[in-house]
Amino acid sequence: MKIVLFNKWIIVGITLFCFALNLDGQTIDPKAKPFKINGSIGGNASYNSISGIPQRRQPYGYGLFGTVNIQLYGWSLPFSIAISQQGSSFSQPFSRFGVSPQYKWIKLYAGYRNMNFSEFTLGGVTFLGGGVELTPGKFRFAAMYGRLRKAIDQPQNQYEIPQYQRNGYGFKVGFGTKTFIDLSFFNAKDDINSLPSPDSLILRNPPEASTTLGLNGRISMGQDHWIFDYDAAIGTYTRDLRVEEIENIGGLGGSISDYLDVNASSNAAFAASTGLEYKNQIFSLGGKYRYVQSGFQTLGTNYLLNDLEMITIKGGLNLIKNRMNINGSFGIQNNNLSERKYAKTSRNIGSASINYRATDQLSFNVIYSNFSIYQTVIRDSIFADSVMVDQMNHLVNFGATYIVVSDKYTHSYMLNTSFQELADQRENQTYNAGNQLISLIFTYGIRFNEKKFGLTFGANYQDFSSLFTAQSRYGANVGFNIQLLERKLNLRLKQIWNRSVLVDRFDNIYNTQLSLVYAFVKKHSLTFSSAFISRQGVNSFTELTASIGYRARF
Questions:
Q1: How is residue 529 annotated by DSSP?
Q2: pLDDT of 2 above 50
Q3: Given the DSSP bridges, would you call strands 139-149 and 209-221 parallel, antiparallel or unpaired?
Q4: Suppose 330 and one of 185, 214, 350, 448 were both cysteines; which one would form an S-S bond, judging by CB atoms 3.0 to 4.6 Å apart?
């Protein structure tokens, strides 16, 4: 029997043992309310019509959703469900249902759920299956098993591609609260037999597998002023399970592929992240180090960048009785850690921000960020120039807000302006890849407090220039909002106009937005929203989008 099934039954056995050991000690609280239920349900329908360009979305759509939380003598059982139209076929709706009942330190997972073990093992991936999380005292235990990805043989739209069904399981054991240590394990594998015609995937989406063992934790010292975090993992990743297996690696005896799904397309790699930070009410300073080897990958995360080394330092100050906050960070990032690529890329990332609340009405903020990238060729015989990329990206942003409140009126003024420049610093250039972007946005709003309605006015300007093109955009907008029927009906209307100007053409873009929210009965509401877009110029088109929805809370 393979270790996959063996480990799955270990998880089930440990879970049942924990319940048998601990549920006997649980007592029902006689003072607790026997039964309580709350949540919300609702749905919406949408319509889209477009003329002048190809259809960008389905003309009709729908969505149903619901969240229910049942409390029974201290037990908490939250349910959630969502159903919506997906793809180009109306006969293939998308639906998800899940529940996570909880009682004191016991939490269960069933249906479509998410669980987090660590960054490098399992985190952020939705699975269809079951799991358990136990936190009695300082003890920490979690386990899961389920389907991470369903099989797709015949794609229903242009965004889907054929794929195998992917199953996964894992567990986590640990100890501690503020200071803790966790050991986690996760395995995921595509089912080669889940598709009737796997030959269509030879070059597009081969069956994969990964096995990862991780250790992470935190050490809190000096009354929580000092925090030390660490997260490390080692694992194997197999790009194609159909490749021939490797037997007797390192004289271990037996086929190692029975344990780790290893074959000629596999690799083993290491990843780690650690950081140390000191903070108090006035001052904070910390540093982080991150190292992810080339080829490290776990199927328990949606996206993880590998072949990366990063060092980051950050700090902050709170001054003038917390009216001024100053924060900054600087990091260095490198790739090609194994020196197997023809080029090596280095990046420097820095940022600083100042937030100042001068008075209760007036506040300012300034943000500066600096991103540089430098790429050199390791084998100079391939290219004539040893430096391929040397760029610096600067961004400066300034914002100001001024609010005046009186008995009858509330005035608000907001200004935001930014300047962004990409500088190409190569000595030998066939062309300059630099560009500049200037943006300016101003908004004024007035609220008539007694009459419960308000007006907004805005203006915007953008200018973009580079070696190949120059484009500017400017426009204005006006909005109106009002509360009627003793604040049961909220109406918002906004008209936006923008003019886009290129060297040889211009376009006018009009956007009309309307929204209504009507609370006709306590905890029940109807919503309606629509948007009409009209573009006049070289690529003229019109588009209408509307939706209506209902929601009930209980």
A1: E
A2: no
A3: unpaired
A4: 350
Alpha-carbon gap, residue 74 to 51, rounded angstroms: 56
For residue 376, CA distances in Å to 119, 342, 344, 430 come to 31, 9, 5, 17
Question: pLDDT tens digits, residue range 55-74?
Answer: 878 889 999 988 888 887 66
Sign of CA dihedral 414, 477, 44, 521: positive
Sign of CA dihedral 106, 112, 118, 124: negative
Q: Using alpha carbons, select from 42, 58, 10 the residue that is nearest to residue 553.
A: 42
Cα end-to-end span (Å), the chain: 50
**Structure-block tokens of residue 70:** 């049942």
Instruction: Report whether pLDDT(228) > 90.
Output: yes
Could you tell me where the DSSP H helices lie in 182-290?
257-260
Those residues whose C-beta lies under 8 Å from the C-beta of residue 219, and which sit 6 or more positions away, are 179, 227, 228
Question: 3-state SS string over 335-399?
Answer: CCCCCCCCEEEEEEEEEEEEEEECCCCEEEEEEEEEEEEEEEECCCCCCCCCEEEEEEEEEEEEE
* pTM for this prediction: 0.75
- Mean pLDDT is lowest, of 4-8, 46-50, 149-153, for 4-8
User: For residues 373 and 422, what is the distance between their CA atoms, to the nearest angstrom?
Assistant: 11
Question: How high does pLDDT run on average in the chain?
Answer: 83
